């Protein structure tokens, strides 16, 4: 079944699916769980996904967002070949921090499932309270570099890394509902948890407790971090 993604400016789902597709092509299943090789492959896949995110993902009412191409198997094949034994440090895009985020996953007695992430962005949002609710400050989700897909413009929706996920068995039963806070690192947190459950056989709580690891992004200068 083809993935269904709603609102690419508001979701990190495209990048999560790219990371998983790249890992599948990079021999991730041969790397031992929690090993340096696994961390290397994961961070390199993250570099490639974040590079595409910075180049292509923005408000679809202002820019063309090539979701199908970004998730196309042949495209991911080409991108995965960029992953080698050494860090690429800064990944190129392909051709084609927030403390105000929360997430909840709920399954009710009738089997209805929801995975929901929400954010006011910065701590205390815009510092304005209306009827007991803090207003958000989504301007921090824009890029302020001219020429980017996510540059700030009037009436434009900013891009977010929020990535609530539902995972289904082949018979359409829900296996997991998950998501995370964490600003730009949300994509890595969710992808790591999926890898730990689906590839490493951990239960969900143990998967969440696996130390977080990720390639550094434009927001965090460096070559790689353990979080």
What layout of secondary structure does this protein have?
Elements: H1 13-25, H2 36-56, H3 67-70, H4 73-80, E1 101-107, E2 113-119, E3 129-130, E4 133-134, E5 165-168, E6 174-178, H5 186-198, H6 204-209, E7 213-214, E8 225-226
Walk me through the structure.
This protein has 227 residues and is α+β, with helices and mostly antiparallel strands. It is 29% helix and 14% strand. The protein has six helices and eight strands, in the order H-H-H-H-E-E-E-E-E-E-H-H-E-E. The strands form four sheets. A two-stranded antiparallel ribbon has the order 1-2. A two-stranded antiparallel ribbon has the order 3-4. A two-stranded antiparallel ribbon has the order 5-6. Helix 1 (13-25) crosses helix 5. The longest helix is centred in the N-terminal third of the chain and has 21 residues, at 36-56.
Structural key phrases:
two-stranded antiparallel sheet, 8 strands, 227 residues, 6 helices, disordered C terminus, alpha+beta
Shape: globular
Report the sheet with the most strands, covering strand number, pairing sense and barrel closure: 2 strands, antiparallel
Order of helices and strands: HHHHEEEEEEHHEE
- Terminal CA distance reads 33 Å
The total beta strand count reads: 8
> What portion of the residues fall into strands of 2 or more residues?
5-15%
Q: Which strands sit side by side, in order, in the main sheet?
A: 1-2
Residue stretches low in confidence (pLDDT < 50, at least 5 long) are 218-227
Number of helices: 6
Tell me the Rg in angstroms: 17 Å
Assembly level: single chain
**Secondary structure category:** alpha+beta
Mean pLDDT: 86
Share in helix = 25-40%
